[in-house]
Design goal:
- By secondary structure, the protein is an alpha+beta fold.
- It has 2 domains: 30 residues; 124 residues, Rieske Iron-sulfur Protein (3-layer Sandwich).
- It is built from 2 helices and 13 strands; from the N terminus they run H-E-E-H-E-E-E-E-E-E-E-E-E-E-E.
- The strands form 3 sheets. Strands 3-4-13-12-7-6-5 form a 7-stranded antiparallel sheet, with no helix packed on it. Strands 8-9-10-11 form a 4-stranded antiparallel sheet, with no helix packed on it.
- Strand 5 and strand 6 form a beta hairpin.
- The N terminus is likely disordered.
- The protein binds FE2/S2 (inorganic) cluster.
- FE2/S2 (inorganic) cluster binds next to loops.
């Protein structure tokens, strides 16, 4: 019987397979693996975009039971005054967006893929969950997976400068 010998692990092969992870690690670059095995750079959070509220200054935003009341005249609520402005209200797990300058919509910030609720971006009328890249439109509908279900939409009412979101 012929003995099958395994090729020794060459230095070139080792460097090829270990090189990318070691390089990212050495440079201190965040390395995120998505569920399909591909990799991507970490996405910038809402604070970085300067257009979302990730839970810092929340004066003007009141959470009471299943309601979130946002004062549009406050600094925290101001982004919702203009088209494309949005908020991530972490403590209430709510995303809110001014769709077209007049209509404000609100959704759960709990991603329907694996439940990430704090890593969102909004641009080009799309919410992106940074955890694995799912995208949702301004109706909460899935535009790109891996998420397969739409975001739950909450009722929104407006009274003068107060917007009330009811979960
Ligand atoms: Fe996976 Fe949002 S938790 S895309």
């Amino acid at each position: 019987m012929k003995k099958i010998e395994k090729e020794p692990y060459s230095r070139k092969e080792f460097l090829r397979t270990a090189g990318s992870a070691a390089l990212f690690s050495a440079l201190g670059i965040p390395f995120i693996t998505s569920c399909d095995g591909s990799t991507t750079d970490a996405l910038e959070g809402p604070n970085g975009s300067g257009n979302g509220n990730a839970g810092g200054d929340t004066d003007g935003i009141t959470i009471s039971g299943n309601q979130v009341i946002i004062d549009l005249d406050s600094t925290a609520g101001a982004p919702l005054n203009s088209s494309g402005g949005w908020l991530l209200i972490r403590d209430a797990q709510v995303l809110a967006v001014n769709v077209d300058g007049t209509v404000i919509r609100a959704f759960t910030s709990v991603c329907t893929h694996q439940g990430c609720d704090t890593s969102w971006q909004f641009s080009n009328s799309l919410f992106t969950c940074s955890c694995h890249g799912s995208q949702f439109n301004t109706s909460g509908g899935v535009v790109r997976g891996p998420a397969a279900q739409d975001l739950e939409e909450f009722n929104v009412s407006k009274d003068n400068s107060n917007v009330t979101i009811t979960k």
